[in-house]
Amino acid sequence: MRGLDQKLHAIFERLYDAYGPQCWWPGETPFEVMVGAILTQNTTWSNVERAIASLKALNYLHAEAILALADEPLARLLRPTGYFNVKARRLRCFCAWYLDQGGYEPLRGEKTEALRADLLAVQGIGPETADDILLYAFRRPVFVIDAYTRRLFARLECIRGNEDYEALRGLFESALGADVPLYNEFHALIVRHAKEVCKSRPTCDRCCLSLGCPSSAGATPRPAMDAS
DNA sequence: ACCCAGGGTCATA
DNA sequence: TATGACCATGGG
């Protein structure tokens, strides 16, 4: 019986071969990454890009500027991301915390688990958003668990699928070992794959992971993933 | 018109 | 612990 680590690495290779490097997270600065992580909650990235662009255009992409904005004007800028009233509050809570901590440099010195606990204490930052921030803004070896990850690996029979967030994160992290570049690319590839599969629905009968389904004429079918 | 998206919180049972 | 309701725009 192959270990979980070998299965995961094999799946990673399939995804990487199929899609190549994803160059995540899209964003020029760590702060932009953090803002994006909050704004992308249950929302497509293309919607987040509009809001980020608006903030940038007005030179508001700083914790001080966002905090200085009243709820309503901020919500207007966040409008395309959906839940704009909720996200305006969340963003301001985050910015207040961020400034209170002294910004990026002091935070960068914190140990990962302490930083994670701090992030989770911010209203509106849950486990996935915190882990996005830890991995993509602070380069910490934290494996992000999202709905795609849960569905995909449950289907590939690597997990049951009903484990709680922390259990899954522990499972992936101990199987893969602390590896920031791997975690970075893996999560991005999982999201990419989900989009790709979604695009080809309902004929999603052929993907790089051989998730069931016949291959189209002329294509060489991949051998099925060894799930045992 | 319907479904879902790179979630999180809060109220119930 | 575990569901359900709620937040709300934009693209398929």
Proportion in β-strands: under 5%
Name the quaternary structure.
Answer: single chain
Structural class: mainly alpha
* SS summary, helix count: 12
Largest sheet: none
Q: Helical residue percent?
A: 55-70%
Q: Runs with pLDDT <50, length 5+?
A: 213-222
What are the secondary-structure elements, in order, as H or E?
HHHHHHHHHHHH
DSSP, total strands: 0
* Mean of residue pLDDT values: 91
Distance N terminus to C terminus? Answer: 6 Å
Tertiary shape = globular
The Cα radius of gyration reads 19 Å
Explain what this protein looks like in three dimensions.
Helices cover 60% and strands 0% of the residues. With 228 residues, the protein is an all-alpha fold. Helix 1 crosses helix 11. The chain binds a DNA duplex (13 and 12 nucleotides) through residues 36-38, 40-48, 50, 79-87, 90, 123-129, 132, 144, 146-148, 164, 187-188, 190-191, 194-195, 198-199, 201.
